[in-house]
Amino acid sequence: MLQLMKYEFRKQMFSKIIILAILGLMEVVFLGAVLLKKEEVMAISVLGLYVLACMAAFYVSIEAIITFSNDLKTKQSYMLFLTPKSAYQIMGAKVLGAIIQVFLTAALFLALGFADVFFLAARYSKVSEIIDAAKEILSGLSGLDITLPMILMTLFLIFICWISTIIFAMLSITLSTTVLENRKSKWIISFLSFILINVVVYKTMSLVGDQVTAGFYISSLVSAGISAVFIALASIGTSWMLEKKVSL
Amino acid sequence: MLECKDATKKYMGKVAVDRMNLTVEKGRIYALLGPNGSGKTTLMKMVAGLVKPTEGVVTYNKIPIGIESKRKVAYMSTEPFYYNYMNIADVGKYYADFFEDFSTEKYAQLIERMNLRTQDKVKSLSSGMAAKLKIAATLSRKAELILLDEPLNGIDIIAREQIITTIVESANDENALVVSSHLVDELEKIIDYAVFMKEGNLVMQGDAEEMRAERGMSIVELYKRIYA
Question: Domain boundary residue among A96, A127, A146?
Answer without folding.
Answer: A146
